[in-house]
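REQUEST ID: PR-0412
SUBMITTED BY: lab tech R.K.
PRIORITY: routine
TASK: structure prediction, single protein chain
INPUT:
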Amino acid sequence: MPTTPSPLRLQTRAVVRSLLAQTAMTLFAEKGYNETTVDEVAAAAGVSRRTLFNYFRTKEDLALSGLSEQGDVIAERLSGRPADENAWVSLRYAFQVLDEIEATPQHRLEIISMLFDNEALRAGHAEKQARWTDLLAPLIEPKIPDSGDRTFEARAIVGTAITCLQAAMEEWLRREGATPMFDLYDTAIAAVRTL
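STATUS: complete
OUTPUT:
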């Protein structure tokens, strides 16, 4: 009979997974994604290649793992927002989790540049963000009037907000971090909402 992993074992696995991902992102930022091998990541983390693949299926999965975790944290933050708060305001505050990640501005630029400059990572990034819609839309749905299309409208709002976030990240990268990313996000949202 299969046993259920203990909470401590699950926490340990999550910590190890996070540390492996951090090690990989540091190497990717230093050497470049394509130039860094899985063996180098394993060696830097002090684990075997096999152990690394127990936590991540592919090198791409390793590079994009943080996005899934970020989606969960954003959803948690969103679920804690006031029930009567405007959906757009709630999403903005929830997305600010991304601005709270501990990293130097230069390291953030390197990581985002890596994600957008590599076609496979860019596609994976977009796919993971699309999953955020499934995660966040049910939390936005109660914030909007029930028109019979509320589920669809919630998905449209979340999808639009995620697209604005992506546009803000790209513009932030283009400006080399000179303008705060959430100022750019606010500009993008304002442009969409006033049309």
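NOTES: DSSP finds nine helices and no strands in the chain.
REVIEWED BY: pending
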